[in-house]
């Protein structure tokens, strides 16, 4: 079965579910960066109530969560499936919530929510990023193009502030006590926070942690963490901060005088 035949069959089945108004392809498959064996990320955009039992009734192998089963918030559940031997993730997207987050993003407003597999949590504008980076397969979904200027300013400032506080706490509390795990964990979280700050300043959408540091060109922090040992924890925390601040400064240099580059 070709990829197109495979995808069209799934899109048709998802579009036929009650209350679903649109189906979109996301992730590496939508962006043309998929590797062999990459999974397929799809989202169902529904209006009103969505009943996962209708998705279960399609008969695909895998786990189908309740609405809100992945912690609630904007990322409110979905399914991990195997269809025709291929891995498929289906995400539930409430159109009322998505439209509200689009409006908030344009005003520079967002929240940060905890979500498994995302070290620093996710910004609620993640659902807006999905629309900007995805491809509509069936029906209609909201259109999103550029990263809002107001969000570039607010998100870069907020994420960088969180990163600075994360490192400061590690330097003041974990490093003096030789707490290696806590220090390394704090650096990892702060690196992700700095990465979000960099990408926001540059007006670059991101939807997950898989290549977050690489997208922000902060992968050098891998070397900082690899060099960590009990005797130099304070230095390691400081080195990570210095590296990340320099990258953020270059990303935000144009913001002070107005945003005119992507």
Automatic annotation (TrEMBL):
What Pfam family does this protein match (any one)? Answer: NTP_transf_2
Q: Give residue ranges for domain Polymerase nucleotidyl transferase.
A: 10-65
Name the SUPFAM superfamilies for this protein: Nucleotidyltransferase (SSF81301)
Keyword list, A-Z: Transferase
Does the keyword Transferase feature in the UniProt annotation?
A: yes
One of the record's GO molecular function terms: nucleotidyltransferase activity
Q: Which domain of life is it from?
A: Bacteria
The name of this protein is Putative nucleotidyltransferase
Q: What is the lineage of its organism?
A: Bacteria, Bacillati, Actinomycetota, Actinomycetes, Streptosporangiales
């Amino acid at each position: 079965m070709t990829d197109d035949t495979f995808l069209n069959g799934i899109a048709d089945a998802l579009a036929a579910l009650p209350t679903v108004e649109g189906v979109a392809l996301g992730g590496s498959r939508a962006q043309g960066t998929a590797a062999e064996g990459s999974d397929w990320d799809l989202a169902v955009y529904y209006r009103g109530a969505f009943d996962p039992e209708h998705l279960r009734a399609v008969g695909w192998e895998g786990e189908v969560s309740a609405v809100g089963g992945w912690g609630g918030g904007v990322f409110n559940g979905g399914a991990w499936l195997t269809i025709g031997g291929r891995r498929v993730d289906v995400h539930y997207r409430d159109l009322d919530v998505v439209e509200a987050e689009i409006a908030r993003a344009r005003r520079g407003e967002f929240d940060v929510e905890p979500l498994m597999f995302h070290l620093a949590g996710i910004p609620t504008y993640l659902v807006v990023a999905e629309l900007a980076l995805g491809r509509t397969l069936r029906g209609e979904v909201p259109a999103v193009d550029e990263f809002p200027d107001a969000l570039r300013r607010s998100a870069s400032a907020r994420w960088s502030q969180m990163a600075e506080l994360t490192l400061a706490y590690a330097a003041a509390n974990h490093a003096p006590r030789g707490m290696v795990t806590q220090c390394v964990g704090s650096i990892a979280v702060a690196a992700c926070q700095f990465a979000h700050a960099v990408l926001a300043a540059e007006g670059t959408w991101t939807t997950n942690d898989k290549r977050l540091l690489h997208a922000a060109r902060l992968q050098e922090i891998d070397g900082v963490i690899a060099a960590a040992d009990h005797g130099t924890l304070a230095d390691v925390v400081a080195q990570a901060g210095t590296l990340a601040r320099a990258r953020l400064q270059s990303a935000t240099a144009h913001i002070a005088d107005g945003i005119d580059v992507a």
